[in-house]
Design a protein that fits this description.
By secondary structure, the protein is α+β, with helices and mostly antiparallel strands. Strand 1 (2-5), helix 1 and strand 2 (27-30) form a beta-alpha-beta unit. Strands 2-1-3-4 form a 4-stranded mixed β-sheet. The longest helix has 27 residues, at 84-110. It folds into 2 domains: 2-73, Glutaredoxin (3-Layer(aba) Sandwich); 84-192, Up-down Bundle (Glutathione S-transferase Yfyf (Class Pi), Chain A, domain 2). The relative contact order is 0.15. Helix content is 54%, strand content 6%. Helix 1 packs across helix 6, helix 4 runs antiparallel to helix 5 (120-141) and helix 4 (84-110) runs parallel beside helix 6 (154-169). The chain has helices spanning 10-21, 40-43, 63-73, 84-110, 120-141, 154-169, 175-178, 180-189, 193-196, and strands at 2-5, 27-30, 51-53, 59-60. It binds L-gamma-glutamyl-3-sulfino-L-alanylglycine (GSF). L-gamma-glutamyl-3-sulfino-L-alanylglycine binds next to helix 3 and helix 4.
């Protein structure tokens, strides 16, 4: 199988971390939807990465569909529970972490525009989502070892990628001191090979 994506996208990182945690071999093709002349929309009509191309040329997107597929394609190191209630809880963590990435990516893009054209209220609205979501994550994590309690799961992968994206694009956001338990979780995650090998960079 082949993963199409960039080295900066937190959603691509999520897929790469899952591939590594599941020890699945794949080809990685570097493409950014922001580079002119890119062919991402040839494979994904939404023009977004990540895209996973299966050996029979079936194309999968978005990252949530990709990681669920990957978790089920190999029986080892399960990242999503089978029980409906717990599975839903993991997916809620994922929705929250992806939502933080969505808001952060919007702010990043908005701030690339000329200052006079930037929507200050729009930026503030997105920043508030990030602040609230971090507080929610921290309160849900509480004193647990992992997001889901005692077991490492996809929830931790998604939170790690979201926090890593904030570290990468918004180092000025001091979530580490405001939420010490999230910082502890992040430090633990960053010791895993799958995270070390996928640290975002331009
Ligand atoms: C989000 C993918 C996305 O926005 C997912 O896969 O989970 N819900 C989707 N990817 C960005 C790349 S990133 O670095 O934020 C993307 O491809 N943006 C291009 C565009 O045209 O929006």
């Amino acid at each position: 199988m082949k993963l199409i994506g960039s080295l900066t996208s937190p959603y691509v990182r999520k897929a790469r971390v899952v591939l590594a945690e599941k020890k699945i071999d794949y080809d990685f093709e570097l493409h950014s939807p922001w580079v002119s002349g890119n062919r991402v929309s040839d494979v994904n009509p939404l023009g977004k990465i990540p895209v996973l191309v299966l050996d029979d040329n079936t194309v999968l997107f978005d990252s949530r569909v990709i990681v669920e597929y990957l978790d089920n394609v190999a029986p080892n190191n399960k990242l999503m529970p089978t029980l409906n209630r717990e599975r839903t809880e993991v997916k809620r963590w994922e929705a929250l972490a992806d939502g933080v990435c969505d808001a952060a990516a919007l702010v990043f893009l908005e701030k690339k525009r000329p200052v006079a054209q930037q929507g200050t209220e729009w930026i503030l609205r997105q920043e508030e989502k990030i602040v609230r979501s971090l507080a929610f994550m921290s309160s849900e994590l509480d004193e647990n070892t992992w997001c889901m309690g005692t077991h490492f799961s996809l929830a931790d992968v998604t939170v790690g990628c979201a926090l890593g994206y904030l570290v990468f694009r918004f180092p000025e956001i001091d979530w580490q001191n405001n939420h010490v338990n999230l910082a502890r979780l992040y430090d633990k995650l960053m010791k895993r090979t799958a995270f070390v090998e996928t640290v975002p960079h331009d």
